[in-house]
Structures are given as C-alpha cells and as structure tokens.
Amino acid sequence: MTLHHYLILAALLFCVGLMGAFTRRNAIVVLFSVEIMLNAANLNFIAFWRYSENPALLHGPLFTLFAIAVAAAEVAVGLALVIAVYRHFKTVDLESMDTLREE
Amino acid sequence: MNEVVAFWILSIIAIFGALVAVRKRNLIHGVFALLVFFAGLSGLFLLLLAEFIAAVQVLVYIGAVGILLLFAIMLTERVTGDDDRRVTSRGWFWGLVVTAAVFVVLLLPAIQQLPPPKAAQTIDPSVKELGHKLMNPYVVTLEVLALLLTAALIGAVTAAQGVRMPKEEDSPE
Questions:
Q1: Residue B149 burial by CB count (10 A; 0-12/13-18/19+): exposed, middle or buried?
Q2: Number of separate domains in chain B
Q3: Which of B2, B3, B9, B22 to substitute to test the interface with A, most A CBs within 10 Å?
Q4: pLDDT, tens only, B11-31
Q5: Cβ under 8 Å to A: B residues 10-69
Q6: Minimal CA–CA distance to B75: which of B173, B21, B156, B130?
Q7: What is the pTM of this model?
Q8: CATH number for the domain running over A3-96
C-alpha cells in the first residue's frame, strides 16, 4: 500500500460526500454528507502521518483528534438547527425553505 | 499481502457505505449505511497504525453521532422519507458536474508521478505519548476545545428548545 492509494480513496469518499451535499434535498442527509467529507479529510491526515518522515511527533493523530471533537460539536449544533428549522417550517426539505429568496 | 487485501475490503466497505448513505431514500437505512462507513474508516485507521484514533472513531461516530442522527430523524416528520416527492435537489445536474470537477482536481497531483514516500516500518503510537503531547504543547488547544464543546452543548440545547414566549399565566416563583 502506498500513500497514493489512501489519498485516492479519501478523494473518492470526499466526492461522495460532496455529491450528497449537492444533490439531496433533505437537511439531515446533507449533514450526513458533511460528516463523510470530514471523515475523508481525517483519513488524509492519518495517511500523511503514517507516511511522514517523523511519525513519532504524532501530528496526524492529534489533529485528527481535534477534528473529531469539532465535528462532534458541529453535528450536535447542526441537528439542533435542523430540529429548530423543522419546528418553524414543518419540513426538513431544503428547497422549501426559501423565505429569503426574492421572487 | 494481508495488508493489501484488508485495504481493498475496507475501502470497498467505506465507499459502499458512503454511497448508500447519500443515495438511500429511507433515512433510517441511510444512517445505518453511514455507520457501516464509519466502521470501515475505523478499520482503515487501524491499518494505518492509528489505534487510538480508530477507537475514538468507533466511540464518537458510531456511538454518539449515529445515535444522535437517529434521534434527529425520529424527532422530525416523515421518518422513512419514502413518499412520492423528489429526493434530489433542483440543481442536481450541476452538483454532479461540480463533484466530478472537484474529483479531477483532487486527483491531479496523483497523476503526476511523484515518488511515493516510504512508510515507517515501526511506529510506536502509544496512547501515553499522545496524552503527554496533549498536556505539554497542546494544552491550550485542548482547553479551547473543551470550551467549544461546552458552548456547542449549550447552543444545541438552546437552538433545539426554540424561543419560548413568556406567558402571563405562568405562576410566579
């Protein structure tokens, strides 16, 4: 296994997440997609760390740990916002939330 | 050899899980596919000798985020999501185009034949060392992160609770 395999895999996973965020209407599925993209980035961090000059510095795992913590905070706040939006609009469909659009 | 087989199996699991999670109409099935994706990624972390991160991935993502997503789906209407309305957004075609473009751009460095760096044969990623690092050079980051998590907790509760109008008939303390 070389670094390239992991990088290509991470790029593929990132693009799957991007596709989900761009093509789905449900707000919760968009949150899934964001999580998938964040995880792909974490895979990149760990792969670069594994193939780095000096892995004993543990930069990769530390950054990934911080990224996971921030992602956990993000998903909690994101879901709370989805629930708040659902209360207001009675839907989680992103395309029916167009109050700010000027027709 | 074993590593190669494990890599391919785990990457197929991860990609399959991610694809099902973003394409499935039924949201509950989507969450379970997402859990499969997280598990596959955790296996890849193990393969990259990051055992602690793999454990954290299982604890935080499969344990907490998955359950949180399930709760959010059950708290909002149309649990299954399998009604007759369209699933894809209006601009799905341009979304796919942009996704393909981003993929190509991400792969551009891979096309250039850069010499692949060698993997270190042995890594001693002891959790003890990680803890020391968190306490010595990264302690400020750790504290800021703790503050962020507290703020996110309070913010999430406040946002999910909604604005409650004060009523007159509420009995005074």
A1: middle
A2: 2
A3: B22
A4: 999 999 999 999 888 888 999
A5: 11, 14-15, 18-19, 21-23, 27, 30-31, 34, 37-38, 41, 44-45, 47-50, 52-53, 56-57, 60-61, 64-65, 68-69
A6: B156
A7: 0.88
A8: 1.10.287.3510
